[in-house]
Amino acid sequence: MQPHESSVHYSKWDDSSRDEVSMAAVSSTEEASCGRRVAQKLCSGKLGIAMKVLGGVALFWVTFILGYVTGYYVHKCK
């Protein structure tokens, strides 16, 4: 495993009193491009919308089931 390198870019805006500093971690090109391609594929377009909808539905059902089970044991008659 290679150590991650970081780069710092500093630019001062001429027309404003604000300064801009950005830092970016640089890893190997193959890892970054592969991860970026997967994220781009899963988070954009029709597939991205479908993934977000399925994630929301799954989160709803997990929350619903946890609430149901918790409510059952909290309000269980003795």
Automatic annotation (TrEMBL):
Superkingdom as given in the UniProt entry: Eukaryota
GO CC list: cell surface; plasma membrane
UniProt KW keywords: Membrane, Transmembrane, Transmembrane helix
Keyword Transmembrane assigned: yes
InterPro entries: SMIM1
Membrane spanning stretches: 53-74
GO molecular function: protein homodimerization activity
PANTHER family in alphabetical order: SMALL INTEGRAL MEMBRANE PROTEIN 1
Protein name: Small integral membrane protein 1 (Vel blood group)
Species: Ictidomys tridecemlineatus
Name of the gene this protein is made from: SMIM1
